[in-house]
Amino acid sequence: CAILDVHAACQDATVTQELLKEGFHRDLLVKVELGAVGEDAGGCAVAARTHLPPGIYVDPYELASLQQHNLTKVVLVPDVIDVEAPEYLATNLLVLLYLEPDPGCSRCFRAALPVHGRYHRPAEESEEALVVLKSPEVLACCCDNRLSAECWKPAEVEAPCSGKNMGPCQWYSITHKPAYEESILQVPVGLRQHSSLVCVMTLLATVLCSSLILATVCKYGNFS
């Protein structure tokens, strides 16, 4: 691995975080541009560590499929997630997203991760709930280098540098300036004044469907 220039490493990184698509199912795109480290950045692995609030989650089954096809590299803490839990029963999720080098920029890295909004409690007035996603922390893991303690801070991360199932290595936190301090996910929610109507319509739909199933069984069922 290459050795990073200390003076170059002291320059801030720039982080851009975007939520793509609309509705409950989104893509979280993270882009990092390191300080003017030039080609030396190729000797380091770069990752973004972010805390997802209870209103948003990563589907571990979808993630396993993506990782099986080498489409993304992610470490989740905890790794067991209840995808059916509503927002008010869920907990925070720690995500370590490994970034890939950007072919168009020697010191740029990027990666996308599918995320999903959780169901929220019905609201009084607004038809949307806001989920605030803070800017991620930028981490770097380099081989055979001497990083200045003034520029790099050791980070407590229990994850390998390569994203594969290997022993953990030493990660370092990079000073960065986010393009935006936070991103906001707008999740559709129901209105409380519609609760009675929803209950009645749900009951009617259940009775109708049950009646159709029962009628079909009685008509075509073999009870002999």
TrEMBL record:
Pathway participation: Glycolipid biosynthesis; glycosylphosphatidylinositol-anchor biosynthesis
A GO cellular component entry from the record: endoplasmic reticulum membrane
Intracellular or extracellular location(s): Endoplasmic reticulum membrane
Cited Pfam families: PIG-X
Residue intervals passing through the bilayer: 195-218
Main localization category: endoplasmic reticulum
Top-level taxon of origin: Eukaryota
GO biological process: GPI anchor biosynthetic process
Keyword terms of this UniProt record: Endoplasmic reticulum, Glycoprotein, GPI-anchor biosynthesis, Membrane, Transmembrane, Transmembrane helix
Membrane disposition: Single-pass membrane protein
Function: Stabilizing subunit of the glycosylphosphatidylinositol-mannosyltransferase I complex which catalyzes the transfer of the first mannose, via an alpha-1,4 bond from a dolichol-phosphate-mannose (Dol-P-Man) to the glucosaminyl acyl phosphatidylinositol (GlcN-(acyl)PI) intermediate to generate alpha-D-Man-(1->4)-alpha-D-GlcN-(1->6)-(1-radyl,2-acyl-sn-glycero-3-phospho)-2-acyl-inositol and participates in the sixth step of the glycosylphosphatidylinositol-anchor biosynthesis. Probably acts by stabilizing the mannosyltransferase PIGM.
Family to which this protein belongs: Belongs to the PIGX family.
UniProt name for this protein: Phosphatidylinositol-glycan biosynthesis class X protein
